[in-house]
């Protein structure tokens, strides 16, 4: 049913029906703004991104593939517009390159599924053995090196490495190959929210 609605809406858009365009705006504008804001942490900038996407969709409406999910197409368009605008405004430093690489690995996942993955990651971290969890979070969340953790906890570097390796093994068994990307997004988003906005 959803696919049929998508196909019908896409066909109306391609034909230049302004009512179909209005329906698309009404259906997705607010959610796309929220998604864009989660990327850039700036409400006005998020609205600019989404408005640019809708303008481009109307201008290039004849290139829309009616067989593809409009929802996925819109979210990916917002993501691509965010990357384009960000790179125009600022040089991309190493940490941001890592951030974009992480987003690239998960961009094909629906936003709702990504939320579920992040929640699952949080839950699985909580389920780690206590010492293993403590050391893993000191490394990933606080950004401490293996040497700093060993000195702080008065344990050997080998012990630190053993706990981190064990944590990765457990999380990879639960979340699969995307564990690194989800981890990076989870902790970099928290850090980014404390930073100034883009623009």
Q: Care to give the gist of this entry?
A:
The protein is an all-alpha fold. The chain has helices spanning 2-14, 18-40, 43-59, 70-89, 94-106, 111-126, 130-140, 146-153, 157-175, 179-192.
SSE layout and pairing:
Elements (H helix, E strand, L loop, with lengths): L1 H13 L3 H23 L2 H17 L10 H20 L4 H13 L4 H16 L3 H11 L5 H8 L3 H19 L3 H14 L7
Average pLDDT reading: 78
Largest sheet: none
What is the CATH first-level class name of the largest domain? Mainly Alpha
**Rg result:** 21 Å
List the helices and strands in order.
Answer: HHHHHHHHHH
Distance between the termini: 41 Å
Q: How many helices?
A: 10
How many structural domains? 2
What features would you describe in this structure?
The protein is mainly α and 199 residues long. The protein folds into 2 domains: 2-89, Rna Polymerase Sigma Factor, Chain: A, CATH 1.10.1740; 98-192, Arc Repressor Mutant, subunit A (Orthogonal Bundle), CATH 1.10.10. 77% of the residues lie in helices and 0% in strands. The protein contains 10 helices and no strands. α8 (146-153) crosses α9. The longest helix is centred in the first third of the chain and has 23 residues, at 18-40. The protein starts with a helix and ends in a 7-residue tail after the last helix.
